[in-house]
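Let us practice reading a record.
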Amino acid sequence: MSEATVIYPARRVITMNPAFPSAEAVAVRDGRVLAVGTVEELAAWGEHTVDDQFADKIIMPGFVESHCHAMSGGMWQFPYVGFFDRRSPDGQLWPGSADIPAVIERVRELDEEMRAAGMPDDEVLIAWGVDPLYFDGERLDRHHLDQAAETRPVYLYHASGHLATVNTRMLTDSDITAETPTPGIALGADGEPNGELQEPAAMDLPAGARSKLRSALGNQDALWKFAYEARNCGVTMVTDLGGMGLTERRVSDWESVTGNPEFPVRAMMAVSPAYVGFSDHDEVADAVAAKKSDSADKLHYGVIKIMLDGSIQGFTARVSWPYYYNAPEDAAENGIWIVPPETVAKMVLAYHRKGLTVHCHCNGDQATQLFVDAVEYALEQHPRWDHRHTVQHCQMTTIAQYRKMSALGMSANIFSNHLWYWGDQHRDFTQGPERASRMDACATALREGVPFSIHSDSPVTPMGHLHTAWCAVNRITPSGDVLGKHERISVHDAMEAITIGGAHQIKMDHLVGSLESGKMADFAILEEDPYEVDPTHLKDIPVWGTVVGGTPFKSTIGEL
């Protein structure tokens, strides 16, 4: 039996449907959009109620975040020590640590709090969000952390998720020395480990921190906090590109939370071969392809996530000659390959043959080229239409690569938030002014006909699509520089990227991404119209909350 029809009038309904771009109201029945139009037109559908709670607000399609990580919710189980102020899922604003002394003082406070709580000296102190690239002068290392906590092992997880900095006690407890063969152990001028661990192999060496992190990041509480973060910024569909695999516990946790009617977001759960073993990609492909049939109302499968390189700000991304601009003396000349390059083509082919969509982490243009070549090889071996294989982050992708991506039917998910969070650093330290001006090239993607979306990569940067849109439209850095004015895009193009563009990329555009009859009744409820405010104000538009499947979920921002 059908549920009653509810009509929601609004100051304006923005549909992102070019055939019917705006309306004054939207009607919902059985969790779906019955129709959009005038209240009078919608009333003609029969018995209904009119709900005026959004009458003075803007209704848009719920934002689709097609690159974030469920671990974002779990990170808030640890203290935040990042550079920028940041808001947690419960709405609390956490102040940033603006320099190395501030980080030292914050870690010292946390160590004292642990002592006061009776925690022994061997209990690991984990905090997150730091990035040494923000600090002038010397680079944060173990000696700084030793000043804060000499006897307790300390593990600072970087904002990028690709590095960590630890103190001497943690190095000693983990048996990490200059002779340790694991790649990614940075050495100081004295030839000894300086406390910086680069990329997963090295970051996982401190077993105490690894187990504590994995326990916190992979539980149901983390998934709920992740969903609250989405709700607070108008996101109704997330793609968890953490790729934590198809373990029984992980699947059970996701199915449990998304089966709860109070869970305020839909999710696409990506799977990474890194978490289920590299030995047999055909076996992994079979498992994920079979899991697609288990997709439910709020939980979907079918995306494979692979990683090729590291982070640009951590100097571990693979970029083409002339490599890095002002890299630290101890940095590798050109980053780190996460997987052996010679294995990538066959890896992509295994998933491509099974009808899966491959999303590949490529920060540097050298990594992009490797993935583009792998997709071309897969298409030569197994022609297939509408695959939507996607370059994730796509930060340094060149014009020639965009042209090739267009010819191959590929998509781009562009990390526009880097223009704000690391724009000045990319200009001055990692890429230089010319190359930095073409980073995160949304306008080039448009010109070359590459379907694209934009993303936050939360927890690397805070989830919030009005901010990612603001970055793509304005390209302003914290110093006030416009980084690449010719790569700016219009507000409308940015709105498409965070709605129907993101939905298309994960093959969900038949269900979400626009407000059309038959699609899910998923809305972002805004206090101001993004088409009417000054484009420099986009990121400041307050979000009331969301509607998912016809159920309203109010944001906690401003309630504390």
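A brief commentary: The two ends are 40 Å apart (CA to CA).
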